[in-house]
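Work Package 4 report. The design task specified in the project plan requires that, given a folded chain encoded as structure tokens, an amino acid be chosen for each position. We show below one input record used in the internal validation round.
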């Protein structure tokens, strides 16, 4: 796989596009500008890699739109060394952005084929080594909790209470909540064991969060 001046040029344009849509976090912009998104695509689809859109990755799933990845990451205000749980590894692109930001990443995927593929692909191609898990992330990942940040990259019917439990005090959860066509982006900050600060943002459209605390298959 090559990353030449043409890809770099397309990436620069993509960064400008997401900036024009309101992304200001310099770390997030740098990560999107650095990671060769076309490496996550079959060679014949390279042209699609630097358009600001989601794209199929097999198993009925998608690599999220770059703006969506940037928006969710910006809401989390990732700091170097943050312990972050991502629910929905998918292509591994979002996990790569988190690794670039210096987070200690735990990522869980429900589709075995995607999990198996990405677990090999990310360390081999990029040298990124998040902690990969296979299973139902709608219940979080209790064995490694608590987390500074939790990021859900599939649309949930409600906010699973396990995810709030697995957040550190002072931590944040970002999750799209709604029906299986459209969801509102929600950020919940855990100010104390009893106080949650909830803020809603604009509408997005994610594939459904399946599983015990998500949508039934
Ligand atoms: N973060 C991904 C990326 O960068 O490519 C986006 C992935 S896609 C929009 C959402 C992913 O969530 C899919 O791969 C899907 O299989 C996964 N998913 C859905 N329900 C899940 C669950 N209960 N636990 C873990 N992953 C789940």
């Amino acid at each position: 796989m090559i990353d030449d001046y043409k890809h770099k040029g397309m990436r620069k344009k993509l960064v400008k596009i997401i900036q024009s849509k309101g992304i200001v976090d310099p770390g997030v912009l740098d990560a999107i500008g650095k990671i060769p998104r076309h490496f996550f695509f079959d060679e014949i689809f390279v042209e699609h890699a630097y358009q600001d859109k989601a794209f199929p990755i097999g198993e009925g799933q998608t690599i999220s739109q770059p703006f969506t990845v940037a928006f969710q990451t910006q809401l989390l205000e990732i700091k170097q060394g943050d312990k972050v749980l991502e629910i929905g590894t998918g292509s591994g692109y979002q996990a790569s952005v988190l690794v670039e930001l210096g987070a200690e990443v735990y990522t869980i995927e429900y589709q075995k084929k995607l999990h198996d593929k990405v677990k090999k692909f990310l360390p081999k191609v990029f040298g990124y080594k998040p902690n990969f898990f296979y299973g139902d992330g709608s219940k979080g990942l209790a064995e490694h909790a608590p987390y500074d940040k939790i990021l859900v990259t599939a649309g949930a019917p409600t906010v699973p209470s396990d995810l709030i439990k697995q957040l550190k005090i002072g931590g944040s959860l970002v999750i799209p909540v709604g029906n299986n066509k459209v969801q509102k982006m929600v950020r919940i900050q855990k100010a104390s064991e009893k106080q949650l600060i909830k803020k809603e943002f604009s509408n997005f459209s994610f594939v459904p969060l399946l599983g015990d605390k998500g949508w039934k298959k």
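The helical segments are 5-20, 26-34, 46-49, 66-76, 93-100, 112-126, 161-165. Validation will be extended to a larger panel in the next phase.
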